[in-house]
Amino acid sequence: MLKRFLNFITFIDLPIRKKFTLFSLGVLFWFIVMFIISITVNSNISNKTGNIVNRIIPHDRVAQKITRKLQGLSIDATEIMNISGIKDLNQKIDVSRARISDIKSFVSALTLGGQIHDINRNTGQVIESFSVTPLDETPEVQKYSKDLLPLIDSLEVKLKELADLKATTLNNKIQDDGRVAIKVGEFKLLLSEAGSLSQDYSVKIAKLYTVKSKNIRDVSNFIFYVLAGVLLISTALLIVFTLSISKAIAKPVESITGQIRALGEGEVDLSKKIDIHSKDEIGILSEDFNLLMDEIHELSTFKKVIEEDDNLEDVYSRLGKTFSDRIGLDEFIIYEVSNSQNKMKPVYPIILDDNDIFCNEEILNNCDLCKVKKTGHIISSIEYPDICKQLRPGLEKEHVCVPMIVGGRIGGVVQFLFGKKNYNIDRKDKRMFKAEQYIKESLSVIEAKRLTNTLRESALKDSLTGLYNRRFLQEYTETLVAGVLRRKKNVGLMMCDLDFFKQVNDLYGHNVGDNVLKETSEIIRKCVRSSDLVIRFGGEEFLVLMLDINGGETINVAEKIRDALEKTKIKVSDGIIKKTISLGVSEFPIDTESFWQAIKFADVALYKAKETGRNKVVKFTEDMWTEKEF
Question: Is the N-terminal amide bond of 58 cis, ω within 30° of 0?
Fold first, then answer.
């Protein structure tokens, strides 16, 4: 249920067009949400910041300037007390009055708003000018103005009294009896009270600034978390949707195309299946492709395994177990045919008594009595009742006998039996089709291993390298060609020749030359399949026959051999040497219908590789052959 719900919200099972439409709408939705949030937040923060910059900070600056003016008045009072000339007195009194006037204008600006002009009263220069907006919503401003203005008025009165007293003293040239100092003290006391009010107001403005700043930070933090949450949610959803769509579309398509491409090159890993996560067009395609790959994988794996088997008995045993375990065919006998002796024998399952077979015993010593061996065709009593006269009388079973054509001749027969009452024709067709495919896949391996057995008996191998020799090729050609043509397959031919091999013998001696030949033969063997044939054609020349290949595959293996030898370091007595190899490639019967001419064509391509620089692979083309006939 959860999986179905997830598939629903991630559009997994929707058609591809709807997937992308809904995905695009979802992305657009989250972009719009983030845009709206960003615009709203930006407007809010801008308003709050403007309030601080245009209103609160100017009030704080005015309060600081009032404090400095009061400090200036305190200094003026001290200087007035010590002045000895009437002219200096008048100048200082004018400066102090100007300071008081500035304070009044500052307080008025705080209350009503307006322009602030801060002037240095000692020099007359303007320090700065700025605007102040009243804080109507803040009662502290009104209280500050209300409390400060009476004090300023009192300061103005005290300043006049101080000025008059000091002027009288100077004009009459009488000695100061301490009255001026008393007036200065009274004046400074008022200044101290006014300064305390300004400092308190500055503290309140600072607190207001802190509150407003905290509001901005709180809004910023809140919006940050909101945006982070939206971004996280949208990113998570984007990742989920992207992964789901990629999983449902991109990955299966990539896997299918990769498998098809690799399958065409013969390098596919057939054990890897395409994961199916949807029920859309891609899911259906993936499921069908997996079924196809399963069948190919089973056949490919089977052939690879029997290629590694040591002998024919293992191949027959594995083929028989495949019939019973994988296909479900339980009753069968595999016969091996010896054409030279005109005999056939059961090889799987192991039969100790000839009476255990389903046919007359005479066919074992005269295999021409077997209709399959005689005709080379599948014989079925289901399609043609009583077609075979060699079946044991009274055997209440149907039979299907399949020929194993090896080297153009009948090399074996597989006999399948079915109960008449329980036999299902539909199931039979499917099972028999698979059985025939496994038999076909095993034929080239059986042919190669039977040939190997023959070689062991006739010792057609090169003593130095352990490879097949030229005599073997001459004796095996007819069988090889017949088998290839019968199966409608191809043989890839590679003529290989070590570059400048004579120099090895001349410089290092023949023992080193022999080691180079051995090393080369081992490299070639490792680069080809066990069912392929590697032949020492003569001297430093090697011929490789790749059985049952598709057109164009040979040149890839040839390049693999060339690259492997080029990278190989061969040890000699005083160090190591490296050799290269040139290869000529042809394919039978693609390039020619004559097997020996195909060898000649590979040789011609080899010489072309030598002429054009060595250490390369050259595929035979028609323009290389200038002779009219072979």
Answer: no
- CA-CA distance, 161 to 148, in Å (whole number)? 20
What digits encode the pLDDT tens for the residues 579-605?
A: 999 999 999 999 999 999 999 999 999
Within a domain: residue 13? no
- The whole model's pTM is what? 0.43
Q: 267: how many CB neighbours lie within 10 A of its CB?
A: 9
Q: What are phi and psi of 586, to 5 degrees?
A: -145, 170
Token readout for 500 is 């400048």
Q: Is the pLDDT of residue 522 over 80?
A: yes
Phi-psi region of 470 (alpha: psi -120 to 50; beta: other; left: phi over 0): alpha
- Domain match, 107 and 127 both: yes
Q: What is the pLDDT of residues 376-386, one digit of tens each?
A: 899 888 888 88
Domain count, the chain: 4
For residue 51, what are the β-bridge partners? Answer: none
Q: What is the DSSP letter of 273?
A: P
Which domain range does residue 607 map to? 461-624
Q: Which of 477, 470, 485 is nearest to 451 (CA)?
A: 477
324 CB contacts (<8 Å, ≥6 apart)? Answer: 330, 332
Q: Per the structure block, which two tokens stand in for 437?
A: 């495919």
Rounded to whole angstroms, the Cα distance separating 45 from 51 reads 10
CA-based R_g, the chain, Å: 53
Enumerate the β-bridge partners of residue 583: 496, 617
Which alpha helices (H) appear in 459-594, and where do they start and end? Answer: 470-487, 501-508, 510-527, 554-567
Alpha-carbon distance of 401 to 378, in angstroms, equals 6
Same domain, 181 and 299: no
Task: Please tell me the distance from the alpha carbon of residue 328 to that of residue 323, in angstroms, as a whole number.
Answer: 6
Same domain? For 155 and 92 the reply is: yes
Start-to-end CA distance of the chain, whole Å, equals: 74
Whether residues 66 and 206 share a domain: the answer is: yes
What does the pLDDT read at residue 514?
A: 93
Q: How far apart are CA 551 and CA 455, in angstroms?
A: 28
Residues in the chain: 630
